[in-house]
Amino acid sequence: MTNTNHLDDKACCSTDQHPGKPKKEEEKTSPTFLQTWGSGMVSFVMLLAGIAADQLGQPAIFQGWIRIGWYVLAYLPVGWPVLVKGWKSILKGDVFTEFFLMGIATLGAFAIGEYPEAVAVMLFYAIGELFQDAAVNRAKRNIKALLDIRPDSASVYRGGQTVSVHPEEVQIGETIQVKPGEKVPLDGEMISEKGSFNTSALTGESKPATYNKGENVLAGMVNLDRLIELKVIRRFNESSIARILELVQNATSRKAKTEQFIRKFARVYTPIVTFLAIGLAFLPYFFLEDYMFEAWLYRALIFLVISCPCALVVSIPLGYFGGIGAASRKGILFKGSNFLDLMTSVTTVVMDKTGTLTKGVFEVQKAVTMEGITLDWLSLTAAMESKSTHPIAKAITEYAKKQGREISEPEQQEEIAGHGLKGIVNGKHVLVGNQKLLDKEGIVTHTDAAREVNTVIHVAVDQKYAGYLVIADELKEDAVQSINELHKLGVRELIMLSGDKNAVTQQVAKSLGIDKAFGDLLPEQKVEKVEELKKDASRVIAFVGDGINDAPVLALADVGIAMGGLGSDAAIETADVVIQTDQPSKIATAIQLGKQTKRIVWQNISLAFGVKVIVLALGAGGIATMWEAVFADVGVALLAILNAVRIQRS
């Protein structure tokens, strides 16, 4: 088998440029069947013919130098490339590679006259290498499929007409047009009233999604039903699809502990078995009276073939690579195989509420004005919230518009983390926020507001309490399912942390079956809660969030999981795992994929070590032949590769 470079970053997408840049040239044409398998077929036919001639009693035409030459010619198509690789590795100072092991073993077999075995070992080695390449290419196909959804052109309005340009040339704020059946080239805000999109390339979900005017549509989605117009909100290099590609392409650079150990192990293991083989060939001379050099050399060569660590150094990275690919197909992006491994050990899942378990789509249920208040406090509130991107702010602004209120520009605005907003609108000092904000400012709120179960936003104007808004959020459709699945997977404790009022937080937690819930938390208090949990060394904590305020907790947790659709850029950048679909049920899917990947990896380790130890003992004892050695090396490697490929079918 070949080096694990097949599974490194450069192999991941070797023909691709940076995810945000166009390809400068077309990918190379794939090799034909004959180019791939031709040399192996020639060696195989010649080997069979040679063995048949040997079995027929070696006719006169197939003796002496003719027989040797025949097997040499059968060996060269598959053996020469391996010998060249081995020699190049030696020149680079890397002596003990699998190329070195296979080269020494087969050349040694020629030296002692075991010609058919020498050809067979190298032939099956070459076939195994081809199967390995096929498996690796299959694992990479999911990532390469993402490259196909990068649009090559965008129709942008310039100078009163539509011009087709490369998406890299489009600026933020320009208007683009997307026809039915076309891919959306850049992230943009809907100008058209409505549109239906296939989002499967980004999220793994086959069900079409409908987006209305003012909502954001992401690059890579496919417009399904009508001509739509979008206002560009991000440059091409910063678009969602570019970010996804970069995350997945870089995922192989962060290795799981098992993978790191196997790499280090192979570097130590290979020289050890080489010296053991030398000892097996020569040491018996000092202890046995009937020592025969050829017999013990043959055993040493068998030992070398069996001990080649191919099954381990290929199938284990391939297993993790397949797990990352399978997850990306389901809209779950792991930033490294180490996080895929860590997900299997999670004992405590801590979750944010808004945007994680709830839709984050708020609606104002009612607006209550205090007695004696005559000013239009709702317009002032909407003016304060108009510059915010928070879902509650959008809900208030939309509500004010529906009520026919005029929304002014705030002259001054300051956001107080975990409290709300403070500023000046039309010369009036306005406070908009939660109970903590008004308590901090020494303003007494109305008792009726305290009885509300849903979220309450208090408003004060010129230090006088003006009124409050009651806002409700909805649970996500799969929120209950996600909590049930996490419990079934053995997660010991589910905890919800929220900045929302405690009454709302407890109500949501009870309806979902969450073990513990804490409301009225500031961002720093969320950090304190997680730090408190981390004092228990037996816990492995995953935190799930979506907002910019969640970024510190995402960084603190053992595994940070961000909701990538609605989530802020800060949360996505900080997280270790990104869920593109915004579905909390994908947390359980991520854990299941991690467990399946780890199970397959350990199956391969057990298979490789178990078979090799048995056949090594038989080979050293003179019971196993070179044919058994071929199975112990190439056969086990192929079985391990086929087992690793299973994760891609999950």
| Rg, Å, rounded | 33 Å
Distance between the termini: 25 Å
**CATH class call of the domain at 359-473:** Alpha Beta
Helicity level:
40-55%
Number of strands: 22
Overall, the morphology is elongated
| Beta-strand content | 15-25%
Look at the structure and name the CATH superfamily of the domain at 359-473: Calcium-transporting ATPase, cytoplasmic domain N
Mean pLDDT: 81
How many DSSP helices?
22
Taking the sheet with the most strands, its summary is:
7 strands, mixed
- How does CATH name the architecture of the domain at 359-473? 3-Layer(aba) Sandwich
Q: Report the uncertain regions.
A: 1-28
CATH topology label of the domain at 359-473 = Calcium-transporting ATPase, cytoplasmic domain N
Structural class: alpha+beta
Oligomer: single chain
Going across the major beta sheet, what is the strand order?
A: 10-22-21-20-11-18-19
EC number: 7.2.2.12
Subcellular location: Cell membrane; Membrane
Domain P-type ATPase A: 150-249
InterPro entries: ATPase_P-typ_cyto_dom_N, ATPase_P-typ_P_site, ATPase_P-typ_TM_dom_sf, ATPase_P-typ_transduc_dom_A_sf, ATPase_P-type_domA, Cation_Transport_ATPase_IB, HAD-like_sf, HAD_sf
Describe this protein's structure.
It catalyses: Zn(2+)(in) + ATP + H2O = Zn(2+)(out) + ADP + phosphate + H(+). The protein is 49% helix and 16% strand. It has 22 helices and 22 strands. The model is unreliable at 1-28 (pLDDT under 50).
